[in-house]
Write a structure and sequence with these properties.
By secondary structure, the protein is α+β, with helices and mostly antiparallel strands. It is built from 17 helices and 29 strands.
Length: 692
């Protein structure tokens, strides 16, 4: 018989904690939530204080039975769910089921699953924080009121299976608005003039800046001709040289949002995958007996704080001094927090910086290793000295026509020795040298070349860009980004092309209806204010029932109006112009969960359906008859196959190219590479330089 029972969410976490606590403690897993609102009904009494009706989640009966049996044998029960609103709510539900007093010292929280952190947390148990519970309840009830009222309305007016959520609708609206910006964008012409200059044996590049000392825009070819006509020969005078030293500070340690963004940029991880792998690293990895067994490798991964504990800072300082030298240790910078940051936990960091990624490679999966390495490098760099860059700007004059050349070189790498933050356009900071130039010198222009450009529309959202935008606008919180992006894809409201979101016809129809009848649901400012209200509940500054009531009073009126006035939307089938090979009737385009597909117009007598295949202009290399088409796996991953399937089973995860290998005449494919895409042979070692 164990003296103490500890309940956590997951079995992996349970194993790690049990080993640290010793024989007197039995650690069990609740497998997440044990109670929730029922799926079959609203479960919220809007007439009586929005009282939620909680039931045991289907399939959790055996878990609850096991926990109750273990609770009877224990002298004391500790509830050790995750240290956030969701974890507090899980602890509250468990307390209800196991008849534990909420005000007793039953709650234990820790930011990292390490021996010291676990043992310290059990010295300071506390009561359940009802403000956190109420904030979680408020979010859950709000989402239920929105989803369970608007969704059935969409089923009646549009088609079955649709849904509208509070945060997901705003995310889809952002994607739709961006698509409209792109469609309505009118490109504007502009020109640049690039010069290739020579000083002795050194050559360097410069760009046109302006006329008569003023910056001048080149909007037309006529503007360019006017500049070129002013040039007097091919020699320029160095009019001014400005040399400066620029310091570049490292990025702060990861928050949930910045981790998801950087993992998308550098590892090509979706937000959902990032959080899943981070959860594994947090809950514990078996490092082997000699290395300490099951150990949590990172701190809690749902956080909006960039704060770092003094213990972690000191450990990093010692490590940096030992590995790189004292000059690489960073100053104690003040951590800048966002105004909306809850700051409940530290930033995401390794539980010990001494655990170098390379020493763990054998015990981690490929994904675990790559994400741990990213977190470890980002944290270490955040504690390192600034990089120092020497920059030079040279002003070159020819008859009042001014060109400027800029150069920079890294004087001291500092944090850049370990890690440099990624960007959405994948630009890297590289040395750009200029020769030694002094005022009054003459340089020769070997080539002056004008270039025509057109302004580009704003880019479509990648996952990283959308998470960043949602965070900046205050939509959602750390725990909501990944599930929101996953939901809008599963619902078929958006599709992904070249890692960028595109709204589907179905998504556009749904959002237009929601916008017409429930404008606040997709209003960015309203949604952001609602997040602030939830934070106020957590802080104890307001009551959850008050916030729900303020929302529901107007929402209910709009709901009644929508039920009466929303017209039925008929998504008509479009003729496809081809016959069904099974019955001879015409095939039509139908709207499905994942977009359009081909179906027989003779349904239900004929149930023939086919995906809409995108050809890539390549003849099948196997059967020599069919066309290679783009397909999608069950997990929505793109692959390539023959349109004669199942008669021909050709398949490739890499995109085939419409030419053969010049060495062996085999199939060439386009493989994704770090710096773009690379064409290579499927049979021999032939490769072409990556295309950026």
């Amino acid at each position: 018989m164990s003296d103490y029972l500890v309940i956590v969410e997951s079995p992996a976490k349970a194993k790690t904690i049990e080993r640290y606590l010793g024989k007197k403690y039995k650690v069990k897993a609740s497998m997440g939530h044990v109670r929730d609102l029922p799926k079959s009904q609203m479960g919220v009494d809007t007439e009586n204080g929005y009282n939620p009706k909680y039931i045991t989640i289907r399939g959790k009966g055996d878990v609850v039975k096991e926990l109750k049996a273990a609770a009877k044998k224990a002298k004391k029960i500790y509830l050790a769910a995750d240290p956030d609103r969701e974890g507090e709510a899980i602890a509250w539900h468990l307390a209800h089921i196991l008849n534990i007093d909420n005000e007793s010292d039953c709650r234990v929280v820790f930011n990292e699953i390490t021996k010291d952190a676990i043992k310290e947390s059990f010295k300071h148990p506390r009561s359940i924080d009802m403000n956190l519970v109420d904030a979680q309840q408020a979010r859950r009830i709000l989402d239920r009121l929105v989803g369970y009222n608007i969704s059935p309305l969409l089923w009646k007016k549009v088609k079955k299976g649709l849904s509208a959520g509070r945060v997901q609708s705003v995310a889809v609206k952002l994607i739709i608005d961006r698509e409209k910006e792109i469609e309505n964008f009118k490109p504007e012409e502009y020109w640049t003039i690039e010069g290739q200059f020579q000083k002795d044996k050194d050559s360097f590049q410069g760009s046109f800046y302006g006329l008569n000392g003023k910056k001048t825009a080149l909007k037309t070819e006529a503007d360019v001709k006017e500049v070129l006509q002013k040039l007097d020969g091919d020699h320029f005078i160095v009019d001014k040289v400005t040399e400066k030293e620029r310091r570049r500070n490292p990025a702060q340690s990861f928050t949930t949002s910045s981790l998801q963004q950087e993992a998308a940029r550098k590892l090509n991880f979706k937000a959902k995958k990032t959080m899943m792998v981070a959860q594994q690293l947090y809950e514990g990895i078996d490092l082997g007996k000699k290395a300490g067994g099951i150990t949590g490798l990172i701190t809690y991964m749902r956080t909006d704080s960039t704060r770092i504990s003094e213990t972690a800072k000191n450990e990093a300082k010692d490590y940096i001094t030992k590995q790189y030298g004292k000059e690489y240790v960073g100053v104690n910078r003040k951590q800048k927090q966002k105004e909306t940051a809850q700051d409940a936990h530290e930033a995401i960091r390794p539980t010990s910086v001494v655990r170098e990624p390379k020493t763990l490679k054998s015990v981690l999966s490929r994904d675990q290793f790559r994400l741990y390495k990213l977190i470890w490098e980002r944290f270490l760099a955040s504690q390192m000295a600034a990089a120092i860059m020497d920059t030079m700007t040279v002003h070159l004059l020819n008859n009042d026509v001014e060109f400027r050349a800029t150069g920079s070189k890294i004087k001291f790498k500092g944090f850049m020795k370990v890690y440099v933050e990624g960007t959405d356009d994948n630009k890297k900071e590289e040395d750009k040298y200029l020769p030694t130039l002094t005022e009054g010198m003459k340089v020769k222009a070997n080539d002056i070349k004008p270039n025509q450009h057109f302004t580009q529309p704003p880019p479509r959202y990648t996952e990283a860009r959308l998470v960043k935008t949602m965070e900046e606008l205050g939509i959602g919180r750390p725990s909501t980004y990944a599930p929101t992006l996953d939901t809008i894809q599963r619902r078929g409201y958006v599709s992904i092309d070249n890692k960028r979101f595109i709204p589907t016809e179905l998504g556009t129809i749904v959002i237009e209806l929601v916008e017409e009848f429930f404008p606040k649901i997709i209003d960015v400012d309203f949604t952001a204010q609602m997040e602030n209200d939830l934070d106020a509940i957590e802080d104890g500054r307001t009551e959850w029932v008050k916030i729900i009531d303020q929302f529901y009073q107007e929402f209910e009126k709009r709901l009644k109006k929508a039920e009466q006035e929303m017209e039925k939307v008929e998504i008509k089938d479009e003729p496809a112009g081809i016959e069904c090979e099974k019955c001879g009737h015409e095939m039509v385009y139908k709207m499905g969960r994942y977009g359009k597909f081909l179906a027989c117009s003779n349904f239900p007598e004929c149930r023939n359906t086919k995906p809409i295949l995108k050809t890539i202009g390549v003849t099948c290399p196997k059967c020599k008859k069919g066309e290679v088409v783009e397909r999608k796996s069950k997990k929505r991953r793109i692959f390539y196959g023959c349109d004669q399937f199942p008669d021909c089973d050709f398949l490739s995860w890499d995109k085939p190219i419409a030419r053969s290998c010049p060495k062996c005449n085999s199939l060439l494919v386009e493989k994704k590479a770090k710096k773009g895409s690379q064409i290579q042979c499927t049979n021999c070692e032939y490769k072409e330089q990556p295309q950026t």
